[in-house]
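Work package 3, deliverable 3.1, input record:
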Amino acid sequence: MFNTLIANSMPYMPKALVGFFAKRYVAGATPEDAFQTTLALNGEGAVGTIDLLGEFNDKIEKARQTVEMYKLVLDNIKSKNLNTNISIKPTAFGILLNEETCTANMREVIKYAYERNIFVRIDMENHPYTDYTIDLYITLNKEMPGSCGTVFQACLKRTQDDIKHVAASLDKANIRLCKGIYREPDDIAYNNRKKVQENYLECLDLLFEKKAYVGIATHDDVLINGAMELIKKHKLEKNEYEFQMLLGVRSELRKRLLAEGHKLRIYTPFGEDWLPYSIRRLQENPAIVGSAIKGFLTGGR
Ligand SMILES: Cc1cc2nc3c(=O)[nH]c(=O)nc-3n(C[C@H](O)[C@H](O)[C@H](O)COP(=O)(O)OP(=O)(O)OC[C@H]3O[C@@H](n4cnc5c(N)ncnc54)[C@H](O)[C@@H]3O)c2cc1C
């Protein structure tokens, strides 16, 4: 109760104070921070996906800056030989302005990455952008096979149909499967934890059946255990799927999955606009705030 109250007050707190709780979730403000974090993750045996923070942008200049920053990141991935791909979001590339601008910007970055043999994940945002994101993913894969993948959210009632649609449209789909972070209306989404878990495992089973390459993105033990069962059921080799986790979340699980020899990708966000992302992460797990305050008050004893 106390933790939730504090987490919900985060948007009204000074940035420096939120930063105290939130620094675990982001690599830092600069691209160099993201490269250093990726190097450290690679050293542990994990791979990365670098994300430039700054979503829900309605300025054309800012969308262009996003394109240029991702090109710089891609150049550095190549020159520093980092084992990472990138994740991009339509609302950072201009979808709030119009679809044409967004598509042109996203195509430019995906083409730049494709020419450098670097994979791009198109993150899935809230439901007004679901159709757009899936259509763009299919179109760009037809133009540049294997260049990009997208994300499906188990909280959405439509997701099993979307899996069938994508599988029928492409030779091999590449999908990150997550629960979904956005609060969506009851008529289109399951807003019940158990139902989302059930749908997650049904979607994963279907994706494996359709021979998709899946990024199993979760920190939930029920889903990790369920995924292990499905990996056995479909007799998958370790190079036919990967696990994915967020930076700063459940490092003990990260170590366990790596020790068991699974491929593990860590979502590595960076950028000046770290505040909204960090607040979302803290609200997702208010207990973090409580334990940080306790550690602060007791001097970590
Ligand atoms: C790599 C990756 C990419 C993602 N991309 C997208 C996307 O494109 N679109 C989208 O809508 N969502 C995305 N998400 C978010 C996702 O939808 C969930 O909101 C998030 O992963 C929490 O769900 P969970 O399955 O981990 O289960 P939960 O039940 O939320 O978490 C399980 C356990 O993990 C720990 N935990 C979870 N979150 C936190 C946290 N913030 N701080 C500390 N501990 C925590 C807790 O111990 C918790 O009990 C992504 C998640 C990951 C891992």
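Strands lie at 47-52, 84-88, 120-122, 148-153, 174-178, 213-217, 241-246, 264-270.
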